[in-house]
Amino acid sequence: MSTAEARVAPPGAGAVVPVARPFAALRWFRSELGLVFRRPRNLVMLGVLALVPVVVGVALRIAQGEVSAEGGAFAQVTGNGLMLAFGAFAVMLPLFLPLAAAVVAGDSIAGEASRGTLRYLLVTPVSRTRLLVTKFAVIAVYCLAATATVAASASIAATVLFSPDGMTTLSGTVISGWEMIGRLALAALYLGLGLSALGAVGLALSTMTEAPIAAIAATVVLSVAAQILGAIPQLDVISPYLLTSAWSGFDAVLRDPMAVSDLRDGLLVFAAYIVIAGAVAWARFADRDITS
Amino acid sequence: MTTDTKAGAPFAASPPLPESGTGTPVPAPPGGARDAAIVTRGLTKRFRGGQVAVDSLDLVVPRGSVFGFLGPNGSGKTTTIRMLLGLVTPTSGTRELLGVPLAEALPSVGALVEGPAFYPYLSGRDNLLRYDAADRTADPRTARERVAAALDRVGLAAAAGKRYRAYSLGMRQRLAIAAALLGPRELLILDEPTNGLDPQGTREVRALIKEIAAEGVTVFVSSHLLAEVEQMCTHAAIMRAGRLVAQGSLAGLRAGEVPRVRVETPDVARAARVLRELGLMDVHAGEGEVTASLEDVAAEHANAELVRAGVAVRGLAVVRPSLEDVFVELTGEGFDVDG
Ligand SMILES: Nc1ncnc2c1ncn2[C@@H]1O[C@H](COP(=O)(O)OP(=O)(O)O)[C@@H](O)[C@H]1O
Ligand SMILES: [Mg+2]
């Protein structure tokens, strides 16, 4: 008969304890990843992230010649195509990228709770720790995909619209196009991890509510508030501890030689946020009553 | 008193089952955990805000039983089930499933808790595959097969590829039952599985539960419908306002209730007098009929005496007490009073 048929337990016999199968964690991770990456809303967000560099590139191309001697990253774009990617990061860091991270992270637990699927996952059973770890892994992959999307879209747009030969670093030296691509990948990785740290905060907030939109909004508000605090000169003392200030450290890859220690400091800040937010999430979630 | 015979031969080897018609909760027998599918001792939940949802619950669910967990809305059934499954931490007391620690028991437990819950934009099949992927003990190679078999079993094979969003209430409920049947189970915990179903769907679900129980799976099913428990279950526990009122086999529960006799006659006054003289209690004279509690008088004896007294008896029937009578007797109120 069918395998779905329940097994007959002889009375008095102890329960046969089912054992975990190899790669079970990987199987579930892939399943969760599929859920996030098949969800229309999440795909639309990636699409928008891909579109922004193209729009900026086209606008600059049209304006080419009219504006020439202005400062900022974009001023170099017309001469150094790949600079478009770094300009796109700078433009999208205040809101677009954090929003993408917040939507996926804020929804991670609260979305399951509001749908009621959380109770069924937990009785499957999935341990609460395993649930948090898997959800965070998926958030991190989405954040990395978001920055990779921006980098890829900007690179392609730049190649089509401008001449992508060697470019000038912020230090004034010239590096080759290939090395530039390597550095761009590094920046995307760095920012992806930085967004993952915000994602960890969103995950923690997501364990505290059954309304995903509340967790998403709270995450975005925190990120915007941190950026405002980081922009106030009188508050410079706290700036090194702000996640958002560490994000802007990505331009270290644009110096020659690369400011590796800046990147390292930023990564330490990211790691600290992930550890602390993870601990908060675990403390809140480990023995919470699931009444949704 | 013997154990309920409805369960038949497969459960003959079961230990003596707790029975109660006395109205006091039966204390858990010592060492009962091995032979019981569920044992709770003093299980209590006080929610923040002080509301006591479940109060010192001592429940023993024998293996192989179809156990009806009966109580009006708000009596603490869902809260109890959430505690059994580890979703809610008890304020005090203990519970044990299948005689092993909860994490070891859960893979062998299928559950339906407070209605179905799935991803609306995934198909029924993909939703089940998703829950299956979360189960570390599930074999990925047989996942599609098991999902198809479970869908087939609840009659959803044709709608497997449809989005959950487009499912009717009955289909959703059946999908939830399919999810509970994905793996090999020793215990099913079903919280009001017929809620929201039409009469046809209700019949199907009841038939399915009986079929599953016939395979030897213990089924713990909550309900606020007395008739449902009487039809499906071998055992029952009755809850009221968070407290266990009684538990045991259906026969045992009813045993505390004395059957009544109903006499149809045009001669109401005389019949009532004869029955009283015979020693029957609680005699009610109605329109063309008299009912009375039989006590230990045999119905045929009452009939003979009525006829001897010249009462024209048109019909005489023994009315088996229902669970509702048990509930009313134990609590002094109707079943559907508190919400
Ligand atoms: N999360 C909660 N917080 C506070 N009270 C609750 C909560 N969940 C349930 N209750 C209360 O506990 C009691 C029992 O509820 P429940 O277990 O859902 O009953 P049933 O399933 O029998 O209808 C009810 O009075 C309900 O209001
Ligand atoms: Mg309920």
From TrEMBL, chain A:
Keywords: Membrane, Transmembrane, Transmembrane helix
Pfam families hit by this protein: ABC2_membrane_4
Keyword hit for Transmembrane helix: yes
Domain of life: Bacteria
One GO molecular-function entry: ABC-type transporter activity
TM ranges: 43-63, 83-105, 136-161, 181-205, 212-232, 266-285
GO cellular component: plasma membrane
Record protein name field: ABC transporter permease
Organism for this UniProt entry: Bailinhaonella thermotolerans
From TrEMBL, chain B:
Sequence segments annotated as region (Disordered): 1-34
Keyword field: ATP-binding, Nucleotide-binding, Transport
GO function term, MF aspect, one: ATP binding
InterPro entries named in the record: AAA+_ATPase, ABC_transporter-like_ATP-bd, ABC_transporter-like_CS, DrrA1/2-like_C, P-loop_NTPase
SUPFAM superfamilies named in the record: P-loop containing nucleoside triphosphate hydrolases
One Pfam family of this chain: DrrA1-3_C
All residue ranges annotated as the ABC transporter domain in the record: 38-266
Family: Belongs to the ABC transporter superfamily.
Protein name: ABC transporter ATP-binding protein
Organism: Bailinhaonella thermotolerans
